[in-house]
Design a protein that fits this description.
Strand order of the largest sheet: 3-2-1-4-5
CATH superfamily of the largest domain: Nucleic acid-binding proteins
CATH architecture of the largest domain: Beta Barrel
CATH class of the largest domain: Mainly Beta
Strand content: 25-35%
Shape: rod-shaped
Structural class: alpha+beta
CATH topology of the largest domain: OB fold (Dihydrolipoamide Acetyltransferase, E2P)
Number of helices: 3
Largest sheet: 5 strands, antiparallel
Order of helices and strands: HHEEEHEE
Helix content: 25-40%
Length: about 150
């Protein structure tokens, strides 16, 4: 007589019968390519602009001094407000005046220039070549000091 009460043999684990290969481990760049592309498109140009503006505004090409009468000084701009002015210089009385256009980055210095309206002044300036936008000033001449001149 045969014994039917024997325990069945354990079934073996099913083999990988699919033909798809196992997915290999992907690197960081392949997993985050979208974020890295976005960073390259936005962050890199912003970083280049910031570096360009910092260098252009930190180093002056030339410095100098102009003497004359401030003809105009106004706060201009839609989004970026800057102080822009004109200094009327005349070397010979009765000759056509020469205008020197300048920008002022400091509000307190602009108010000091306004205070000397109608009097001869000496403006000390720095020339910054290659400033990236007009947000920093419409001219490349930035006034750093003002003093009243007695003639």
């Amino acid at each position: 007589m045969t014994d039917d009460t024997t325990s069945p043999e354990p079934e073996a684990a099913p083999a990988n019968t699919s033909r798809e290969p196992l997915e290999p481990h992907r690197g960081f760049a392949r997993r985050h390519w979208g974020k890295l592309t976005l960073a390259a498109v936005i962050v890199v140009p912003v970083l280049i602009f910031w570096l360009w503006a910092t260098i252009a505004l930190s180093y002056s090409y030339s410095t100098g001094e102009r003497v004359g009468y401030v003809q105009k000084l106004s706060l201009k701009g839609w989004l970026c407000k800057t102080w822009e002015g004109e200094l009327q210089m005349s070397s010979i009385p009765g000759s056509a005046p020469i205008l020197f256009e300048f920008s002022v980055r400091s509000d307190s210095l602009a108010h000091e220039i306004e205070r000397t309206a109608g009097r001869a002044v000496s403006l000390t300036y720095e020339q910054h070549v290659g400033v990236p936008t007009r947000c920093f000033g419409e001219t490349e001449y930035f006034v750093t000091k003002v003093r009243e001149v007695t003639r």
